Amino acid sequence: MRILLTNDDGAHAPGLAVLKKIAEQISDDIWSVAPRDEQSASSRKVSLHNPVVSRKLGDKTYSVSGTPTDCVIVALGEILKDNPPDLILSGINSGQNIAEDIGFSGTVAGALQGLQMGVPAIALSQARGFATHNHGRVDWSISEQYGAGLIKKLLDNGWPDGVALNINFPDTAPDEVKGVAATSQGSRDFIMAGVDKRKHPRGGNYYWMTYGAGKSDPKAGTDLRAVYDGYISVTPIHVDQTHHKTVAGLSTLFEG
């Protein structure tokens, strides 16, 4: 099995190194094509208005001066075009990608681009900041302990075409993980995005975009609830963003 790795934290991110260790327990044919620089919250951005550059960093290891989506496009369209991967693993992200995060996430975008180009794909993220465990720092040992076994189980079982899997490891000690939960995408009961307004020393204002942390009160069965409660969350996602229940109502509205 040929596995392609990517991420949004950059080619030298610790989470990518952890992901490679996990992938090496599944296959001996591992390729990595990741952003040269951090691309967190880049979503599905494609660099249409400027060229990107690919650099070979080592054996089967490349960087791309663009987004995670760019990386997958370059990997499948050029670097591995004659022998494409059987699986794409995107991550492991430093921080959770659950609920509304999925729309911002470059990690998830890497998986969705692979899916869109016909390759089964999994996004992986390590939650942080929800518990006092490890004082808010990322504890990669959770992902290392459970990652390979979980991916193997998912590969043995399979999942439908047109679906990617979004895995989030909880912010807890490895021996306190309660299990694995199949989940749906949750929704927080507060707005995460905000603006930090500051005075510019030369006059006027400038702004830092903020994306706050914290817990909401999510429904059972959601990715939020699972990660809060110490479970590894596995959410099947897809590219289609249609709200199908509304289609019928609109069809009635426009009849005649």
Write up this protein.
There is one protein chain. The protein is α/β, with parallel strands linked by helices and 256 residues long. It is built from seven helices and eleven strands. The protein has helices at 14-24, 68-79, 101-104, 106-116, 141-157, 223-228, 244-254; strands at residues 2-6, 29-35, 54-58, 61-64, 87-94, 121-126, 164-169, 179-182, 193-199, 205-211, 231-237. The chain has a nine-stranded mixed beta sheet. A two-stranded antiparallel ribbon has the order 9-10. Strand 6 (121-126), helix 5 (141-157) and strand 7 form a beta-alpha-beta unit. It is globular and about 50 Å long. The mean pLDDT is 93.
CATH topology: Stationary-phase Survival Protein Sure Homolog, Chain: A
CATH class: Alpha Beta
The end-to-end distance, rounded to whole angstroms, is: 54 Å
Number of helices: 7
What structural category arises from helix and sheet content? alpha/beta
CATH superfamily: Survival protein SurE-like phosphatase/nucleotidase
CATH architecture: 3-Layer(aba) Sandwich
What number of structural domains do the residues give?
Answer: 1
Q: Fraction of residues in helices? A: 25-40%
For the biggest sheet, the summary is: 9 strands, mixed
Q: What would the average pLDDT be, to the nearest integer?
A: 93
Strand content: 25-35%
Based on DSSP secondary structure assignment, what is the total number of beta strands?
11
Radius of gyration, Cα only, in angstroms?
19 Å
Which word captures the global form? globular
H/E order of the elements? EHEEEHEHHEHEEEEHEH
Placed side by side, the strands forming the largest sheet appear as 3-4-2-1-5-6-7-11-8
- Quaternary state, please? single chain
**Uncertain spans:** none
